[in-house]
Write a structure and sequence with these properties.
The complex is a heterotrimer of chains A (about 280), B (about 280) and C (about 270). Chain A is α/β, with parallel strands linked by helices. Chain A is built from twelve helices and eleven strands. Chain A has two domains: about 230 residues, Rossmann fold, CATH 3.40.50.300; about 40 residues, no CATH class. The longest helix of chain A has 18 residues. Chain B is flat, with a radius of gyration of 25 Å. By secondary structure, chain B is mostly helical. Chain B folds into two domains: about 170 residues, no CATH class; about 100 residues, no CATH class. Chain B contains twelve helices and no strands. Chain C has about 270 residues and is an alpha/beta fold. Chain C has two domains: about 240 residues, Rossmann fold, CATH 3.40.50; about 35 residues, no CATH class. In chain C, the strands form two sheets. Chain C has a six-stranded mixed beta sheet, sandwiched between helices. In chain C, strand 9 and strand 10 form a beta hairpin. In chain C, helix 3 crosses helix 4 and helix 3 runs parallel beside helix 5. The mean pLDDT of chain C is about 95. Classes of the chains: A alpha/beta (about 280), B mainly alpha (about 280), C alpha/beta (about 270). Chains in contact: A-B, A-C, B-C. At the A-C interface, helix 7, helix 11 and helix 12 of A face helix 6, helix 10 and helix 11 of C. Bound molecules: adenosine-5'-triphosphate (2 copies) and magnesium ion (2 copies). One magnesium ion binds next to helix 1 of chain C.
């Protein structure tokens, strides 16, 4: 079942001079792990804002076309109604956390919804547990490292038990190992809890191994939409300048020299597996 | 070092830290009122010492001493002001007598007692707790939120100002160059980025809040509740008793509070006799 | 020539951010400093243009201790581009922004014009000359910040996290640009978390952890050394991971770039066929 469906979305910011979204039609199925990528200024963040109603309710302007998220028409529901079903995590962890203790921050959304205290407690504990930050519960968020802060930000959204989680470049300020941990958490939400994930990312080497659906946007339009292997290996991905995983790139340049691997690898495990076959086969 | 150092909360756990901020605030108010009621040295000295046990139980002696040291400058100013002002500029100039000295000391001590009790309050109350106390005293939530957010972001902004200053210095900006007007102008390259990034930051914050169902219902719930515990009753009781006693003394024995200099007087006499 | 001698640095709040760092950077070197959040990378590079002075130890640029010259003076030699362009842009036009430092340094108006034109064309910003920097996209603002520093042609260029939020194409341009600067004989120092970017640039790498330098060497040697990489909280580049997984086939393990990888693989296949 489609959990997000957009038809011919077109949008310009009130202060903008050009279209930020142009005829965007995509479908995301329940339980998918979507990677949304493409050049800077392509409209990725704007599209994410459409999913929970920040566009148009918060930013203003006119949104043409249709977005339906978990069965709700975004234009007809307020941001707080949508917030129960869809969570947004932003790039800069520092500006998403405003309480003076981790626990209080994680509870913020539930308090806003007027959930009884006992249930808040339970849901907060659950979210802290899953993101692996139970021991940080009483610390002030601004004294944590970037990676820890971003995990708190994820817990904040997770506590509201959304069906869909959207993460807009969640690891750009974080060191590679911290980033890896965050991707692992996101992957767990997707695989274990069945939460649909949409991840906006430029650095595909780390993220793409989890994805089963890739969407590329450029200049407000969707230019590629499909299975990771096809998208990464397509010529237009390279021409637009998507930073395709090095494993896929290696496949392509090997092919130029007449060495073809059995299929297109999108991560190091696949690549080494396929290379092993070629190397050992030729020997034997 | 500044007076404000004595108001910075440090996360430690003690019976005092656990107390309900509202009760603590009541206690501070009582101290405040009593300190204003009396202008004699003796009760103010008592007031000063009454608070010491709290400081030690809370284990914040170091910060507390620091706040007093920070207040030293103001204390000296108050002392001199009282002493000199009473002597020269009043209609009936008092000669610089021991009693004038005592009066000036009393006024200084009153200030110190005020600083002492307020710094006790802020040293042992987490901003978190305070925000919660505000919330549960039916202060509108927007206001409480503004309070905790301010506490949270003021240090961040201070750090940001430092970074911006560094970035502009690295582009050859010299803040101390030129005459007064020029010096003020030198701050423009720091102020504009600071304002711009504060606006950007608040927009991002607003977005994050909206995305977490801000304003969904009038009846917000709260993860924490402040429960009034036994210690709180105890402190409230102590505060009330002190207040009653003080009011009693003030009404019936105000005029009988001895000047400390009176105790010294016999001594002085004996000294003069011998000479 | 930059000489960092046994530097310790403690922030006023008591955090010891550098604990005994020694380092020598020759003219014309290309350095990447990597390591965990809070490892002290930014703190270290701030010492090079004198924004921070060591609590203990010494930093000297071309033989002169940073304690002995003002930041403004040292900046003529050491250009520093901060991570967030919003922390320095404030003028009404891009042109003024780029000219700001030149005016501070007392360049003649005529020369300023020339330098601004040069820097703008270098960074592909000529068409935005009269635009407000606040109207530009993140990537463009970053380039304005870069132009505003390169305009005075410093010998040493320091870039703190230049790739954050940049897409692949912009990164590629940035890489070519850095290489160009480097071939002109400038010393370039970048601070970054972006392993793949470093793998493509192939600079001299310095790995930091907890206020210390834990390793130093060519990108190929450091980024493929499992122990070092773990110590500095880095994930090795994807190509290196592929070769690590194939290590039982006796392939070389110090490969980080796709083209090197292809070469190695082709060699192996030729030998065996
Ligand atoms: N608040 C805003 N007001 C006006 N225009 C905006 C606003 N936010 C974005 N835009 C414009 O909309 C377009 C799409 O921007 P968007 O932020 O969605 O791109 P993006 O794909 O997320 O880019 P990046 O990878 O740099 O984050 C850009 O041309 C941008 O200038
Ligand atoms: N202005 C400051 N005041 C106090 N402590 C600071 C300040 N700046 C940095 N620190 C502390 O110094 C240590 C080193 O910080 P630094 O910014 O050099 O790290 P970094 O390696 O650049 O990290 P990142 O990858 O997150 O940019 C950290 O523990 C940090 O919290
Ligand atoms: Mg974006
Ligand atoms: Mg840094």
């Amino acid at each position: 079942m489609a959990i997000i469906e957009t038809t011919d979305l077109t949008y310009t910011y009130p202060a903008g001079t050009k279209l930020s979204l142009q005829d965007v039609s995509i479908t995301v199925e329940q339980g998918e792990f979507v990677v949304l990528t493409g050049p800077s200024g392509g409209g990725k963040t704007t599209l994410c804002r459409c999913f929970n109603g920040l566009v148009p309710h918060f930013y203003g302007g006119k949104l043409e076309g249709n977005v339906v998220v978990t069965g709700l028409k975004v234009g007809e529901h307020s941001i707080y109604e949508l917030a129960r079903h869809i969570g947004l995590v932003f790039q800069n962890p520092e500006n998403q956390l405003f309480a003076l203790s981790v626990e209080k921050d994680v509870a913020f959304g539930l308090e806003n919804l007027g959930i009884p205290r006992g249930d808040i407690r339970k849901q907060v504990d659950w979210a802290l547990e899953i993101t692996g930050i139970t021991d940080l519960r009483e610390r002030p968020p601004h004294e944590l490292s970037g990676g820890q802060q971003q995990r708190v930000a994820i817990a904040c959204v997770l506590a509201m038990q959304p069906n869909v989680m959207i993460l807009d470049e969640p690891t750009s300020f974080i060191d590679p190992v911290g980033a890896q941990k965050i991707f692992d958490v996101i992957n767990e939400l997707n695989k274990k809890l069945g939460i649909t994930v949409i991840l906006v990312e430029h650095r595909l080497d780390l993220a793409s191994k989890y994805a089963n659906h890739v969407i590329v946007m450029d200049e407000g339009k969707v230019v590629l939409d499909g299975e990771p292997r096809e998208v990464f290996n397509s010529d237009s991905a390279r021409l637009i300048g998507v930073g395709i995983p090095k494993a896929t790139r290696l496949y392509q340049i090997l092919k130029e020299k007449g060495i073809s691997l059995k299929k297109v690898p999108v991560n190091s495990e696949e690549a080494s597996q396929l290379l092993r076959e070629v190397l050992t086969h030729d020997r034997g | 070092m500044s007076v404000f150092d004595g108001f910075k909360f440090r996360r430690v756990y003690s019976p005092i830290h656990q107390l309900d901020p509202r009760v603590k605030f009541f206690y501070v108010l009582v101290m405040f009122v009593i300190a204003i009621m009396f202008n004699q040295l003796l009760p103010l000295i008592l007031l000063f010492f009454i608070q010491l046990p709290f400081v030690f139980v809370a284990g914040v002696q170091r910060e507390w001493v620091r706040s007093l040291r920070g207040a030293l400058f103001f204390a000296i100013m108050i002392f001199l002001f009282n002493f000199v002002f009473q002597y020269f500029w009043t209609e009936y100039p008092l000669p610089p007598s021991p009693s004038l000295l005592e009066y000036s000391i009393a006024m200084t001590l009153r200030f110190i007692v005020l600083i002492e009790s307020f710094s006790m309050f802020f040293l042992t109350t987490s901003p978190d707790h305070l925000g919660l106390a505000l919330e549960q005293s039916h202060v509108p939530y927007e206001f409480c939120f503004a309070f905790t957010t301010a506490v949270r972001f003021v240090p961040v902004l201070a750090e940001e100002a430092q970074t911006i200053m560094d970035a502009q210095k690295a582009r050859g900006l010299e803040l101390e160059r030129g005459n007064f007007i020029k010096k003020v102008k030198n701050y423009i390259p720091i102020l504009i980025p600071l304002i711009v990034s504060a606006i950007r930051r608040s927009l991002e914050l607003a977005e994050a809040m909206e995305s977490r169902a801000w304003g969904a219902t009038e009846k917000r719930t709260n993860l924490y509740v402040l429960r009034v515990k036994r210690g709180d009753y105890l402190l409230a009781l102590i505060s009330v008793l002190i207040l009653i006693f003080a009011v009693y003394v003030w009404i019936f024995h105000r005029e009988q509070i001895p000047l400390l200099t009176n105790f010294l007087a016999p001594l002085e006499l004996t000294v003069t006799k011998i000479s | 020539m930059i000489a960092v001698k046994d530097v310790y640095f403690t922030y006023p709040n008591g955090v010891e951010a550098l604990s005994g760092v020694s380092l020598a950077i020759r003219d014309g070197e290309f350095i990447a400093i990597m390591g965990q959040n809070g490892a002290g990378k930014t703190t270290l590079v701030k010492h090079i243009n004198g924004l921070l002075k060591p609590t203990k130890g010494e930093v000297a640029v071309d033989g002169v201790s940073t304690r002995k010259v003002s930041v403004a003076k040292l900046s003529r030699k050491v250009g520093f581009v901060f991570q967030n362009p919003d922390h320095q842009l404030f003028c009404e036009t891009v042109e003024d922004e780029v000219a700001f430092a030149l005016r501070n340094f007392g360049f003649k108006e005529q020369l300023i014009k020339k330098r601004v034109t040069w820097a703008l064309s270098l960074l592909n910003l000529t068409r935005y000359r009269q635009t407000s920097p606040f109207m530009l996209s993140g990537g463009e603002r970053k380039r304005v910040a870069l132009a505003s520093v390169l305009a005075w042609n410093p010998d040493i260029v320091i870039l703190d996290e230049p790739t954050i939020g940049q897409d692949y194409q912009q990164k590629e341009k940035l890489r070519q640009f850095i290489v160009q600067l480097n071939t002109q004989g400038k010393t370039v120092i970048i601070v970054t978390h972006d392993v793949e970017f470093v793998a493509e640039c192939n600079p001299h790498v310095i790995l930091m952890a907890q206020g210390k330098i834990v390793a130093e060497g060519g990108a190929k040697e450091t980024l493929t050394n499992r122990d070092l990489v773990t110590q500095a909280f880095i994930v090795p580049p994807q190509v290196s991971q592929i070769f690590f997984e194939l290590s039982d086939l006796k392939l070389p393990t110090n490969v980080i770039d796709v083209y090197d990888a292809r070469k190695v693989l082709l060699d192996r296949l030729e030998v065996s066929s």
